[in-house]
Amino acid sequence: MSELSKLARQALLQPQEAMLERDKKKNSLYIGIPKEISFQENRVPLTPLSVALLIENGHEVVLESGAGEAANFLDHHYSEQGALIVQNKEEVYKADIIIKIAPPTLAEIDMMRSGQVLLSSQQPSLMSLDHLQALMKKKVTALSYEYLRDEGNTLTVVRAMSEIVGATSVLIAAEYLSNVFDGKGLMLGGITGVPPTEMVILGAGTVGEFAARTAIALGAQVKVFDSSVYRLRRLQNNVGSRVFTSVIQPIVLRKAVIGCDVVIGAIRATNGRSPCIIGEDTVSKMKPNSVLIDVSIDQGGCFETSEITNHEKPVFRKYDVIHYCVPNIASRVARTATYALTNIFTPILLDLGEMGGDYGPDLGETGCAECYLSLPRTPHK
């Protein structure tokens, strides 16, 4: 009999009274949630109900005042669930685990103590050497959302945000096609007797798939281009309806872009910059007041005319084409994005807490987070 089986059998033989004890765990996690200071970052990693679940399991949560306001979660929503609300950011950074959305700034790293665990968005290829050295000097165990995989070996956070971005990008296109934003005055989709809106989607990944789903549901005529036949076939099967798909052939793509009302660029690069596949000459020949949404702008963009914008001034016009090039589209619907993130992070924190009890009182010093990542994940019950 294996050691695991013996342990399980021993657990079953424990008296019922021992199994029902609710004493506070000796090795409970101390989790800190700071307020985001990155420009227009509106998301928060945990909702009040998730905080309540963590506290019910014997963990402590400290939250900087105003951390959830941008997602419409107020301080009293968290305090009513047992979280400690503090005004001083330094108090938050005394926690054993820091969980946040954006990568930490150098000022935030300075507030961290040696041996902490950090859960945040961190792309090493985009981080400066100073940031990496500062984290290494503090011996911080930094876990990056971009590389977090679930039981199905899917990049779980990346996929969740991509689903939101794909659906939201179509709704953004619908806004800028209307008269409200000096667009063409078209309704995305069309009605009986009126030709449907034509939309071109570049990229058949998760963003492209959910953009296609939303556009088809609204009645638009959708064309999807990608360099991979496998991804195109997968999108066709997942969407469940016949969609025009094509590999990226310059002549066919140029003709489709020039004749469409909306083009969404969702070409992602595995490493480095996303490929620029639509030149300035093609954009200049698009219909007046057409809408161009560059979802890949955070990797450089896939349109030659793209320039980074923000949520306050999200669009600009070039060749009379409306360009929307905001890199953080998920923050536009921060509350939905927060719910998607908390569904991922809460089970992980609960599992970390269970494993932390086996490895010692200080999660940061014991390296239990690395042990956790090295083990196969199982669904949290």
TrEMBL record:
Family: Belongs to the AlaDH/PNT family.
Record-annotated Alanine dehydrogenase/pyridine nucleotide transhydrogenase NAD(H)-binding domain positions: 177-325
EC assignment: 1.4.1.1
Enzyme class (EC, first level): oxidoreductase
Designated gene of the protein: ald
Keywords, alphabetical: Oxidoreductase
Record-annotated Alanine dehydrogenase/pyridine nucleotide transhydrogenase N-terminal domain positions: 32-165
Gene3D superfamilies in the cross-refs: NAD(P)-binding Rossmann-like Domain (3.40.50.720)
Species of the source: Parapedobacter defluvii
Name the record gives this protein: alanine dehydrogenase
Superkingdom of this protein's organism: Bacteria
